[in-house]
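Colleagues,

Please find the record for the two-part complex below.
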Amino acid sequence: MASEGKGNRPTDEDLIERFQNGDLYAFDLIVKRYKNQLLNFIFRFLGNTEEAEDLVQETFLRVYRNRTAYQKVAKFSTWIYTIAGNLAKTELRKRKRRRFFSISELGYNEKDYDISDDAYNPERDVDGRMKEEIIHNQIMALSPKFREVILLRDVQQLSYEEISKIVNIPLGTVKSRVNRGRLKLQDKLRHLLER
Amino acid sequence: MNNCHQCEELISDYIEGKLDSNSRQQFDNHIKACSQCAGKTKNVKVLHNTLIALPGKQVSSDFDSMLRARIGIENKRERRKRESLLFSWKVRVPIYGISVVLVLFILVTVFSLLSNKNTFPPNASMNPEYAAVNQNVFRGSYTFYSLDRKPANDVFSQQQSRYLKKRERIESTSSDSSSLAVYNEPTRSSSVDFYQTSF
């Protein structure tokens, strides 16, 4: 996580405070810290790099626009992930309204879809890239509520408390959702994980 | 640990090392006896480590410049918003200014009209003649009245005729014209002067 200050490294909270006081360089540092983290989170959530990048920019734009709305009582990482998560979920709802669905973009629907095992051939030597693609597809096949917490916990490595604040659900529900999401994923990726 | 369902619920806590020693012992005992739960636990652990190790994506090279451009547009929008707010003030301020000037003008006019009353001598209000004049001033009439409430012009003509009669009388009784010097014909510099000096 980018939020902790180590040595002379300012914390995220210090940076946003400096930015609130008009220091634009502090905003540049925030962008530098979070741009790739947010891209990975939104990309894994939406499955499209261009859209993810566009939403990351929109996230920073909202931080820029609403900088005065941030209160130091909350962690900055929680705040920025909440913005990014809300934007990603709004994008999913837009897609749902457009009723856009194709087999190449599985998982955009709320329902969990099983990808046929044909996509994975045990006889074939699965290299790292293919393995990553399979895992990504299976994450995308999860329903958004499981996908979001799995990504925040296992990919972004946020604490359960932070996830609880970002997703705005009780801590116990977060833990249970993460566990159930992992069980679903391990079930679908069994062949890959047992190798 | 009584059954597989309970075991499943604790898998994440187990692999993250968040179970107390007693629960951990029970969990270990269960997965030793249940190959299915042992397999799931192993898979979840591998999955957890795999997800952590997933290669991260990098933003495109033009990300920063694109973001700056969008922020520039945002700044322009904010500036335009402020200017539009100012514009409304540009319209409002003169309106308010003109209103204030008008109110001040009305106040000054009323005050000056009221203060005209005080141009007369201090005891003017006690004098019935001045009182009559005041009344007519405020009615918009500037005709002045004498003590006997005849218009001042009539007083002037009466005085003039008295003067002429007196002059005739003097001329008829005396041949010395130098004595006429004390009788100067009254002049009318203004109605007010005449009025004020006549009595």
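Chain B has a mean pLDDT of 76.

Comments are welcome before we finalize the supplementary table.
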